[in-house]
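Lab notebook, bench 4. Still working through the backlog of constructs that have no structural model yet. Next entry is a single chain of 219 residues. Request: give me the structure tokens for it.
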Amino acid sequence: MNRILIVEDEARISSFVAKGLKAEGFTPTVVSDGVTGLDYALTGEFDLIVLDIGLPGMDGFTILERVTVERPALPVIVLTARDSVTDTIAALEGGAADYMSKPFRFGELLARVRLRLRSPGEAAPDDELVVGDVRLDLRRRRAFAGEREVELSAREMSLAEVLLRNRGLVLSREQLLSQVWGYDFDPGSNVVDVYVGYLRKKLGADLVTTVRGLGYRVD
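Model written out:
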């Protein structure tokens, strides 16, 4: 079980990331300041770091520099509100394995975490998901219903991917909101119901089952 260090001073974000990673089988540890973050990062007990840049006590660039020198095999994913080209280049050239700007979608962060933890030579996740006559080509981001190609928006594609990957499982609206729309969402929003309706119209009325009071499931 991979251990992941989350160095993030905004409690709402760190809690969101930690809960999501724990649900996916990882063991997350959260620290909220730079000095403690560096101490933890150098222990050798973690397999990956999710690192904010704007931290109290010590900024993320300093932590990244020390980790790159002292733990060069430890992958670091920078997750920050700073989205300028200069900051992106500084992080990547400073040794970061990846860089994501806030706001972000958990599904994308999860994919990047899995990619960075994959062993050399390990097969990549399936590039295609198939349920009945619905097929998603994840590499080319294309969807098909039978022989017919269906045009999906980026958000519709992400929702379809999450539902098909979790075939047979009931996913609550809150789970779908966090994985597809990100941490900065309104829990009372009906956007999930609206987009499920879009998928039913485009990919087939029977694709997604409503489980009353619980959420949605693809069988």
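Notes after review: The chain has a mean pLDDT of 87. The CA atoms of residues 159 and 179 lie 8 Å apart. Flag for follow-up if needed.
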